[in-house]
Specification:
The chain is mainly α. Helix content is 62%, strand content 9%. The protein has one domain: Rhomboid-like fold. The longest helix is centred in the first third of the chain and has 23 residues. The radius of gyration is 18 Å and the shape is globular.
Length: 232
């Protein structure tokens, strides 16, 4: 299921959303350039600037320990594991981010995005504190955007591409169905990782970062959404 667009217009230009997309793409291109020169250097870059749970908890360390473990929570938000990874995250951010930015305002939205990303990373760390697998990607922060969007525009219509093997169909569904289905999938996959894996075996997708980011987005929306005031 791939979202293509929604039907909620923006009243202003989404400076922050576009800026975040550009920054993520530029970092990914830099990663790709490193990989073209040396695959080992690309892996070292991810290990150095990705958020490794056991580094964050202090259960392990790396020579020099640079950058500081807490700083990697921020640097990891702008790194990705491949073309489809960055493309998928930026597609979701492009479709849903502008309307959340429109609601919160540019400055609040930037803070919202970063805090949601931090909460997402910490959620994954709490579930797998001893993991040595680096977390990279904007998925956690984008998940926060999805959580806020679901509360703000549950009845918005989202154009979705459904793919069944060699067959595909384009449908228009309410955001509550599209994003509701998305978070259910995250929960189910998260439960599977807990039941069958722990520590380093919990590699692959950081499902609990998605869940943590989504829930953080809901909470942050209540805390940061501007209050409407009447005029006398």
């Amino acid at each position: 299921m791939i979202p293509l667009k929604d039907d909620v217009p923006s009243s202003g230009f989404p400076f922050v959303t576009i800026g975040l997309i550009v920054l993520n793409v530029l970092v990914f291109l830099y990663q790709a350039s490193i990989g073209m020169d040396s695959e080992r250097a690309a892996e070292a870059f991810i290990l150095e600037f990705g958020a490794v749970p056991c580094r964050v908890t202090g259960a392990c360390s790396v020579p020099g320990d640079f950058p500081p473990p807490l700083a990697t929570i921020f640097t990891s938000m702008f790194m990705h594991g491949g073309l489809f990874h960055v493309a998928g995250n930026m597609l979701y951010l492009w479709i849903f981010g502008d309307n959340v930015e429109d609601t919160l305002g540019h400055g609040r939205f930037l803070v919202f995005y970063l805090v949601a990303g931090v909460a997402a990373a910490l959620a994954q760390v709490v579930v797998h504190p001893g993991s040595r697998v680096p977390m990279v990607g904007a998925s956690g922060a984008v998940s926060g955007v999805l959580g806020a969007y679901l509360l703000l525009f549950p009845y918005a219509r989202v154009l979705v591409l459904l793919i069944f093997g060699f067959f595909f169909r384009i449908v228009r569904w309410p955001a509550s169905i599209v994003l509701g289905f998305w978070i259910v999938v995250q929960f189910l996959n998260g439960l599977i990782t807990v039941s069958v894996a722990a520590g380093d075996a919990a590699g692959g997708t950081a499902w609990f970062a998605h869940i943590g980011g989504f829930l953080a987005g809901i909470v942050l929306l209540f805390l940061m959404r501007p209050r409407r005031t009447g005029r006398l």
